[in-house]
Design brief:
three-stranded antiparallel sheet, globular, seven-stranded mixed sheet, alpha/beta, Aspartate Aminotransferase, domain 1, transaminase activity, EC 2.6.1.-, 12 strands, aminotransferase, Aspartate Aminotransferase, domain 2, binds pyridoxal-5'-phosphate, Aminotransferase_I/II_large, 2 domains
Length: 396
């Protein structure tokens, strides 16, 4: 006998993984240059030079027992202070090391916060479509109910009236992911201020805080001078889940944090519960080496030129062919309306006829669209354009 929920999770096919595996097989048959794989969100720019230099320095200069040892549960003081200083400097808030809890990336950060806020079987966590599909298991497996706000397919901002209709006395939090995976859209300050005002009103109506869980692995990936508002500046009951997976191109190293501002309601209890939830999932502490790297590199910013060139090339080319795309101001995704309306059919045809691998967005809560991860080589994008053109032609 095994747990059915986790069995189902472990055996459910992942569209993204299947496309990726298909691409690898096809590459053996037709050559990698003839496969156009836009499936995975794996960073394609190298980590900043200072990251590798810091790894060398730390390995050379740190006592081995200490380097490979455990840290205390929230992480070492030094990296937490470096992150706090960086956030304070950039966003004008007095962030303290004691408000930060280091994690193995955004996924365990989100799980710990969700676990902390699901208080009983009625607890609801809201997500805004299109959304990162892992929110569904993160919420369900921790006893919460996921409530989905349908996508604003005009601008891919947030339908505030739809949020309002779905808030109940059981709403504990809403996950806000901007820059967004999969749309690549950055929520404007106006959108976030509107959401903050709504949540303040509803929190006082129901007599308990409704938190924003700000899922921010793409915070630094933004183009053309667009600003990503720092949500704790707009709404005090915000808990930030951050990751260096994308901003420092370190997804395999598993490092990130939860930030619980002390001005958030019940912050001490929330922080303690996040810590307890992390303990319950066996999250002891992130790798010491990576904590130390972040301690030295917290101020590093990614060089986004390659992503920006990809974004411009893909967006302009697809628009010129007649595709409708969400305005890609951030992350490394382009979100495209499927010609013909059926994104699964489009994806299947593109795969079979052109080895063009695009992710249909049903799993992101937004059928009829597909996602392109443009963290690929610029050369692959150029070579893939005839396939996109042929696909558009087939549907005209
Ligand atoms: N949240 C979003 C929106 C993501 O896209 C991802 C990863 O792709 C994560 C969270 C998880 O990131 P991490 O690698 O830090 O666990």
């Amino acid at each position: 006998m095994v747990n059915q929920t986790f069995y189902n999770l472990g055996t459910a096919p992942s569209v993204i993984r299947q496309l990726f595996a298909y691409g690898l097989e096809q590459a053996k048959l037709v050559g990698p240059e003839n496969v156009f794989d836009y499936s995975l969100g794996n960073p394609s720019i190298p980590a900043p030079k200072k990251v590798n230099a810091s790894i060398h320095k730390i390995v050379d200069e740190t006592d081995s027992i200490h380097l490979h040892g455990y840290s205390m549960a929230p992480g070492f003081e030094e990296p937490r202070q470096a992150i706090a200083d960086d956030l304070s400097h950039r966003f004008g808030l007095p962030v303290k090391a004691s408000e930060l809890f280091l994690t193995c990336g955004a996924a365990p950060a989100l799980i710990s916060v969700i676990k902390a806020l699901v208080v009983d079987g009625d607890s609801e966590i809201m997500v805004i479509a299109p959304f990162f599909p892992e929110y569904a298991p993160f919420i369900a497996a921790n006893g919460g109910k996921m409530v989905m706000v349908p996508a604003d397919t005009e601008a891919f901002q947030v339908h505030l009236d739809q949020v309002e209709q779905r808030i109940t006395p059981h709403t504990q939090a809403i996950i806000v992911n901007s820059p967004n995976n999969p749309s690549g859209v950055v929520y404007t300050e106006e959108t976030l201020r509107g959401l903050a005002a709504l949540l303040e009103r509803k929190s006082s109506q129901y007599g308990h805080p409704i938190y924003i869980i700000a899922d921010e692995p793409y915070r630094e990936l933004v183009y053309g001078g667009v600003k990503v508002p720092f949500i704790p500046n707009l709404y005090k009951n915000t808990i930030v889940c951050y990751s260096y997976s994308k901003s420092l191109s370190l997804p395999g190293e598993r490092i990130g944090y939860v930030y619980v501002p002390s001005f958030a309601e019940d912050s001490a209890a929330v922080y303690a519960t996040v810590s307890g939830a992390a303990r319950a999932i066996g999250h002891v502490c992130p790798p010491t080496l990576m904590q130390k790297v972040v301690g030295l590199c917290a101020r590093e910013q990614p060089d986004l030129q390659a992503y920006d060139e990809n974004r411009t090339l893909l967006y302009n080319s697809l628009r010129e062919m007649g595709y409708e795309c969400a305005k890609p101001d951030g992350a490394f995704y382009l979100f495209v309306k499927a010609p013909g309306g059926d994104a699964n059919a489009f994806s299947e045809k593109a795969k079979r006829e052109h080895n063009l691998l695009v992710v249909p967005a049903d799993g992101f809560g937004c059928p009829g669209y597909f996602r392109l991860s443009y963290c690929v080589s610029n050369d692959m994008i150029r070579r893939s354009l005839p396939a996109f053109r042929a696909m558009m032609k087939a549907y005209c």
